[in-house]
Amino acid sequence: MTTHENPPGERLSRAFQHRLNELFATRQRAGRGATNREVANWMTEHGYAVKEAYLSALRGGHRTSPSLRIIEGLAAYFGVEPKDLLDTGEDPKKELRLALNDHGVEAFALRAEGLSAENVRAVTQLLDQMRRMQSLPAVDPVDES
Questions:
Q1: Averaged in consecutive runs of 10 residues, what is the pLDDT profile of the chain (145 residues)?
Q2: Which domains does the chain have, with CATH numbers?
Q3: Using N-to-C axis directions, what is the helix angle for 94-101 and 105-112, rounded to 10°?
Q4: Residue ranges of the HTH cro/C1-type domain (predicted)?
């Protein structure tokens, strides 16, 4: 092994830790990200027994080899596929997938399906105005062609 190579499993462990922390940060409840306690309680109630301290160790990189059951439970809580927690590649639709996991966004998107381009623009403008009112960052425009 040369000095610039990662030890076996390190790249995947870092990707898992990064993705897990990203999911915790973006899972909004009451205007904040999810907590270790909330996730541990939910997982335990749904048959994926885990302690809050273990989630903290995973998120901090102190524990790096979660069982498949823990990965499955985390994926269930965050509404992603288990493979998404282990993906080291770039995902061009990652922001979209994360946004769809936010409460109500998927239902909103489904309601917009089939609207005319003019109506979609009007709804988009309304959403932009609401984001400004809530001091949320602007969303980069998507190719609307």
A1: 60 87 79 87 96 95 92 93 79 69 75 88 90 83 54
A2: 10-90 (1.10.260.40)
A3: 110
A4: 50-85
